[in-house]
Specification:
467 residues; binds 4'-deoxy-4'-aminopyridoxal-5'-phosphate; seven-stranded mixed β-sheet; alpha/beta
Length: 467
């Protein structure tokens, strides 16, 4: 069979057997799928040999580029030892080494815990492994819930999260989610959460303007805490930027304000750094920007540099310690997945973290962030760009039908997708969130490729919106 026939066969088999995530399959079946066969640096290649710049880091996971030698080698070396053994009742070498490394990095990056003494102090010092962002969040929610039970404090059964929040697709993660399009359908299945306004200044749901508003959204959060604190286990938040909700950047001071309210009302704070962790925001973790340390932190995506599914939920000593007890007390944390702490994934993560030091990745981001911000400013001059938002190398460009009134495009117009398809024709792969164009290349992208990415995005916006 020739290459062309084999490619066509692959397309047919894909259509026949694969149900793609977050994809309207009726449309997929009508289109020619892009099937990726290779990657190098910040590019991915399809089976016809066309290269695309990976403008969204293969769903926000890739950090150092594709086929990074150091990570490739670490995986190959680990394969010569063992691919997988369980972490339930056993340990493994890469999982131990990675836990140590992660805690060193987190403790170096974040300030000491704000609550000292016997209350809720202690640094983030314990690593609980799982395998994706959603499970890292499930673990965090279950830990927070049981923490209070084990302390003998009953009734703290509910969670607080934000409108427009996205924490993953499992039912617990959806319960604390706040993106209508994705989450509304599952309403009857979800557990109770209190929803606080999203710090979405461009479309403030409280009808106010920053900074004159004096953080009225935090006042609303405080009202929830004041009225229900004895029933609230934890608040979960994506620090600095609500990513999948539309790259919604919170105003400076908001995150710190949330931390302070959590302390004031004796509510645990869970920072979901699944999207923001590992340099995306210009610092190792988004919490660093506001000197915040949470009680529980969720990490995944970039942890292995985009190579392997791996996640961790970090907890303070204080949380870990209340789970200690006699066997028959059943204080054990009854949670764990088959591939928890997978040695190959941990080996990849160790290599990924070493590269941050070896290649001084965070230092190298400054110039790239400046380039991105200059392009964003330029994009804001376009007639249908309503808002631009970025934290570090995570950016969103919100398209609107009418800039003056902020009238959005109708979902059915698929404006974001039309622009993404246009960009695709010009060698750029991006995936929008509704009418928000997401820009999130691998951190290793060269300045030249970053300029290329942004130029194609600008041309595509102009071409598709008409101005
Ligand atoms: N939390 C946040 C902040 C995320 O952005 C995502 C995924 N986009 C998740 C959790 C879920 O991660 P995963 O898709 O790996 O389950």
């Amino acid at each position: 069979m020739g290459i062309l026939e084999e490619n066509i066969r692959l397309e047919e088999i894909d259509r026949k057997y694969i149900w793609h995530p977050f994809t309207q399959m009726k449309e997929w079946l009508e289109e020619k799928p892009i099937i990726i066969s290779e990657g190098k640096d910040c590019f991915i290649k399809d089976i016809y040999g066309r290269w695309y710049l990976d403008g969204v880091s293969s769903l926000w996971v890739n950090i150092h580029g594709h086929r990074k030698k150091e990570i490739d080698d670490a995986i190959k070396v680990q394969l010569d030892s063992i691919a997988h053994s369980t972490l339930l009742g056993l340990s493994n070498v890469p999982a131990i080494r990675l836990a140590e490394k992660l805690i060193q990095i987190v403790q170096k990056s974040l300030p000491p815990h704000p609550i000292k003494g016997e209350n809720r102090g202690g640094r983030l010092s314990k690593v609980f492994y799982s395998d994706n962002g959603s499970t890292a969040v499930e673990v965090a929610l279950k830990m927070a819930f049981q923490y209070w039970r084990h302390k003998g404090i009953d009734g703290k059964n509910a969670f607080v999260s934000l409108n427009n929040a996205y924490h993953g697709d499992t039912i617990g993660a959806v319960s604390v989610g706040g993106v209508e399009t994705f989450h509304k359908a599952f309403g009857p299945l979800l557990f109770k959460t209190y929803k606080s306004p999203s710090p979405y200044c461009y479309r403030c749901e409280l009808g106010r303007e920053y900074p004159d508003c004096k953080f009225v959204c935090l006042d609303k959060l405080e009202e929830i805490f004041k009225d229900h604190s004895t029933g609230i286990a934890a608040m979960i938040i994506e620090p600095l930027i609500q990513a999948a909700g539309g790259m919604i950047k919170s105003p400076p001071g908001y995150l710190k304000g949330v931390r302070e309210l959590c302390i004031k009302y004796n509510i645990l704070m869970i920072a979901d750094e699944v999207a923001t962790g590992f340099g995306r925001t210009g610092k190792m973790f988004a919490c660093e920007h506001e000197d915040v340390v949470p009680d529980i932190m969720c990490l995944s995506k970039g942890i292995t540099g985009g190579y392997m599914p791996l996640a961790v939920t970090l907890a303070t000593d204080e949380i870990y310690n209340v789970f200690l007890g006699e066997f028959k007390e059943l204080k054990t944390f009854f949670h764990g997945h088959s591939y928890t702490g997978n040695p190959i994934a941990c080996a990849a993560a160790l290599a990924c973290l070493d590269l941050f030091e070896k290649e001084q990745v965070l230092k190298g981001l400054k110039g790239k962030i400046e380039i991105l911000e200059a392009w964003l400013k330029d994009l804001l001059n376009l007639q249908h760009v309503g808002d631009i938002r970025n934290v570090g190398l995570m950016a969103g460009v919100e398209l609107v039908r009418d800039k003056k009134t902020k009238e959005p495009y109708d979902l059915a117009e698929k404006m974001g997708w039309r622009i993404a398809y246009h960009a695709r024709e010009n060698g750029i792969f991006i995936r929008p969130l509704g009418s928000v164009i997401v820009i999130m290349p691998p951190l290793s992208i060269s300045e030249q490729n970053l300029n290329q990415l942004l130029k194609v995005i600008k041309d595509s916006i102009v071409s598709v919106t008409g101005s």
